Amino acid sequence: MTHSPLGARETVLGRVRDALALAPVPPVTIPRGYRTGRTLPDGERLALLTHRLLDYKAQVHACTADRTADVIADVLRELGARRIGVPDGLDETWLSRYDGEVQQDSADIPAPALDALDGVVTASAVSCAETGTIFLDGSPGQGRRALSLVPDLHVCVVDLSTVEAGVPEAVTRLVPERPTTLISGPSATSDIELERVEGVHGPRTLVVVVRTDV
């Protein structure tokens, strides 16, 4: 006598449903007593974030808000980036000193086409000094995930006012419903002989411009 695989499947699922109906599982209370409220002075947060990013092989430039455009232009010029992509909503003044080609990103541009860009400039949502992690959540000025992952150079602007000391404090400022990308230095991995290889899963070069008076 043979049995239909579909019939056997329904039999098993039926027994599972019956068991669950007979023995309902009580709701589970998950403790969420995370540490919150840790703070550090501006100078210490900047120093810690910079130390972590440099340790990850990123470049860091601290400047005042009125120097943002100059620093970005200098970075792009030094790295030979003549064609860059920008997300919708990026502050236009940040590129006022840049003399290369600027391409506005849109969902109509296929992700593989972004590889033709020399780099991308974005803003950021939140950063964590303790781990050197920058969070992008797709808000205006940050763009879609592909834009910050496909080009080989990512210039990311971070306002010191958005840098939190630790992970719980940083996560608290995020909107859970938004698509969040976490960046801790340039994309890198190690092969079986522990040789570091950069640019495998994202940009080979990460430059962070920290605005200290915003």
Low-confidence region ranges: none
- How many helical stretches? 5
Question: Measured on Cα atoms, how large is the radius of gyration?
Answer: 23 Å
The CATH superfamily is NagB/RpiA/CoA transferase-like
Looking at the chains present, what oligomeric state does this protein adopt?
Answer: single chain
Q: For the record, give the distance between the C-alpha atoms at the N and C termini, rounded to a whole number.
A: 76 Å
Which CATH class? Alpha Beta
What order do the strands of the largest sheet run in, or round the barrel if closed? 1-12-7-4-2-3
Structural class: alpha/beta
Shape: globular
The count of strands amounts to 12
What's the overall average pLDDT, rounded?
91
Q: Key features?
A:
214 residues; Rossmann fold; globular
